[in-house]
């Protein structure tokens, strides 16, 4: 969360997995140090949605056993907003190029690991995921 400057104002990292709903970091999982939450080892039951809540906004991560994640805003997204999706690999040096998909169909790629949906509306609702060549693909996120 610090790298996104979303939780640098004292926000909380939370998760929703098969083992627990809306549990905050340090409450039976992870170790917290300010706005950083560290998990020593990820297991299949740790897969799920993770997000950071703060006064300045929020950010959501879909986490799975794979090496690629899709970063997206936490719902709700309002009609008319611009929404930026980010595709990240475990190894930051391998973040490019990233391809983005909606409901299984390719919607774009480019020289960065970000993709912006301009002035979203109801037709933009769907399942999004991304892939990074040689790294794999992320789980889908609504």
From TrEMBL:
Gene Ontology, cellular component aspect: external side of plasma membrane
Database matches in InterPro entries: Ig-like_dom (IPR007110), Ig-like_dom_sf (IPR036179), Ig-like_fold (IPR013783), Ig_Fc_receptor (IPR050488)
GO biological process: cell surface receptor signaling pathway; immune response
Gene Ontology MF annotations: transmembrane signaling receptor activity
Keywords from the named record: Disulfide bond, Signal
Domain Ig-like: from-to ranges: 66-142
Keyword Disulfide bond appears in the UniProt entry: yes
The name this protein goes by in its record: Ig-like domain-containing protein
């Amino acid at each position: 969360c610090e790298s996104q400057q979303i939780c640098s104002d004292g926000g909380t990292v939370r998760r929703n997995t098969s083992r627990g709903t809306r549990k905050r970091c340090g409450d039976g999982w992870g170790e917290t140090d300010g706005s950083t939450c560290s998990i020593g080892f990820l297991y299949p039951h740790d897969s799920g949605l993770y997000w950071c809540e703060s006064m300045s906004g929020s950010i959501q991560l879909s986490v799975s056993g794979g090496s690629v994640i899709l970063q997206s805003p936490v719902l709700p997204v309002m009609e008319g907003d611009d929404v930026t999706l980010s595709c990240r690999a475990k190894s930051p040096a391998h973040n490019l190029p990233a391809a983005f998909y909606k409901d299984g169909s390719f919607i774009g790629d480019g020289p960065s690991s970000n993709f912006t949906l301009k002035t979203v509306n109801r037709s933009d609702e769907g399942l999004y995921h991304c892939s990074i060549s040689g790294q794999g693909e992320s789980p889908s996120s609504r």
